[in-house]
């Protein structure tokens, strides 16, 4: 669930609980969707998540984004107040835009 380095920042996420998607698009029998977590700053530069992660719904994707932001800020020093994590669904439609520093929203 980690990110290699701030420079690389692909946000390659481990699949939930070690499970992988089956041909029905589910993990452990329940329906899931693929979500992508991309970082954007004020210059519109992006750090794209090419792999995504399977999650049950958009609310779980929001929770995942919040946890990743905390990890990135505390463990890797992502402290630019203009950073935003864009949560996108499997069609790359933006579902959530989550600021790294909530006061900057």
What is shown here, in short?
It is built from one helix and seven strands, in the order βββββαββ. The protein is an alpha+beta fold and 105 residues long. The chain has one domain (16-104).
Question: What's the arrangement of secondary structure elements?
Answer:
Layout: E1 26-27, E2 30-31, E3 33-40, E4 46-47, E5 53-55, H1 58-76, E6 84-88, E7 94-99
Antiparallel strand pairs: 1-2, 3-4, 3-5, 3-6, 6-7
Report what the structure shows:
With about 100 residues, the chain is of the alpha+beta class. It has one domain (about 15-105). A hairpin with a 2-residue loop joins strand 1 and strand 2 (about 30). Strands 3, 4, 5, 6 and 7 form a 5-stranded antiparallel sheet that branches. A two-stranded antiparallel ribbon has the order 1-2. The chain has one helix at about 60-75; strands at about 25, 30, 35-40, 45, 55, 85-90, 95-100. Mean pLDDT is about 75; it is low at about 1-25.
Shape, principal axes of CA atoms: globular
Helix segment tally:
1
Q: Which blocks of ≥5 consecutive residues have pLDDT under 50?
A: 1-27
Main sheet overview: 5 strands, antiparallel
User: Overall pLDDT, averaged?
Assistant: 75
- Topology as H/E string? EEEEEHEE
Structurally, the number of domains stands at 1
Instruction: Work out the strand percent.
Output: 25-35%
Radius of gyration from the alpha-carbon trace, in angstroms: 14 Å
- Spatial gap, N to C terminus: 26 Å
Q: Report the count of strand segments.
A: 7
Helix content, binned percent = 10-25%
Structural class: alpha+beta
